[in-house]
Write a structure and sequence with these properties.
The structure is a single chain. The protein is mostly helical and 156 residues long. The chain starts with 8 loop residues before the first strand and ends with a helix. The protein is globular.
């Protein structure tokens, strides 16, 4: 699928949900393979961000990422391993460009609010800066947990 080469980023609540889904539905060997693929995707994404390639952000970086043809770590033989529970961006892939963008922006406001509430549940404080955002490779590899805890340490 063409969407399996798009840059996917998500809020804290969605990252937590995707991580839970992976742990609940994928077997140990499959999870290990997916984590390895995620680490490879992370290295490829970081290589795109290196200064020799130039500075890209937002839509420009998403286009560069897509052209680099980095495969989603959750894709196996062209199928999503967590299709019924796939990320929001993936679910909305088939919508026309501007409609998709508008729907994602509207839903992300609600997801950011829920993410703030989850942060509160963990810390008994609302975050001063939010939303935390994670790329799919960070979520699949488990790195998002490390990022979250680093955020907590720096938060206090």
């Amino acid at each position: 699928m063409d969407c399996c080469h798009d840059l996917v980023e998500m809020t804290f609540i969605e990252a937590t949900y995707i991580s839970h889904t992976m742990n609940a539905t994928l077997g140990q060997r499959t999870r290990q393979a997916v984590v390895q693929s995620a680490q490879e995707a992370g290295r490829a994404q970081k290589a795109l961000l290196n200064p020799p390639k130039g500075y890209y952000s937002g839509d420009r970086f998403a286009q560069l990422y897509h052209r680099a043809h980095i495969l989603c770590p959750l894709s196996e033989f062209g199928e999503c391993l967590i299709f019924p529970d796939r990320p929001l961006t993936c679910r909305l892939f088939d919508l026309p460009g501007q409609v998709r963008h508008d729907v994602i922006k509207g839903l992300e406001l609600k997801l950011a609010k829920t993410s703030r509430e989850l942060f509160f549940a963990f810390t008994s404080e609302f975050p001063r800066e939010f939303p935390l955002r994670f790329s799919l490779w960070e979520v699949v590899s488990g790195k998002f947990v490390q990022i979250f805890f680093h955020h907590l340490i720096n938060y206090h």
